[in-house]
Amino acid sequence: xxxxxxxxxxxxxxxxxxxxxxxxxxxxxxxxxxxxxxxxxxxxxxxxxxxxxxxxxxxxxxxxxxxxxxxxxxxxxxxxxxxxxxxxxxxxxxx
Length: 95
Description:
Blueprint: E1 2-10, H1 12-20, H2 24-34, E2 38-44, E3 51-57, H3 60-71, E4 76-83, H4 86-93
């Protein structure tokens, strides 16, 4: 399984939804897991993004599908990054 970092920013619609029903965040997390990933950690943050989510997924295609599906709902804008374990990164530099 690969690790991904999802940076998300609420849209105006998403802000209204979270204000009225904050537990919606956990409902979306369940949807994400049903689509083939596992959420390792999630944080609400201050700054240019509203949430940082660390996920595990089998491949880039799965995480791309998840990003597209969740983003298409109109409540959030997503930037997804593939992450490498630092030990794997170091090994890769020595090949």
